[in-house]
Known about the structure:
By secondary structure, the protein is mainly α.
Amino acid sequence: MTDALADLPGDPRPDGTAPPPLLRPRYLSWWFRDEDVLMADWFDRIESRPEFTVVQSLPAVSTTFGQEEV
C-alpha cells in the first residue's frame, strides 16, 4: 500500500462517510458480453476510478501475462 493509495477516501458508505483505509472493501467489476455494456464503456468506468490513476503512475514491480490451465 502506497501513501497515495492509503490517502484515497474510498467509496462512501450509505450514510455518506468514507471507511478507514484498511476497512475499505475491494472494488470488483466484471464485464460480460451478453449484458449489453460496451467493453470500451466498461474500461472507461474502471479507468475513471481514483485508485486507477494512482496505480497507473507507479512503476511495475513485476508483470505476468498468460492463461492459467484448468
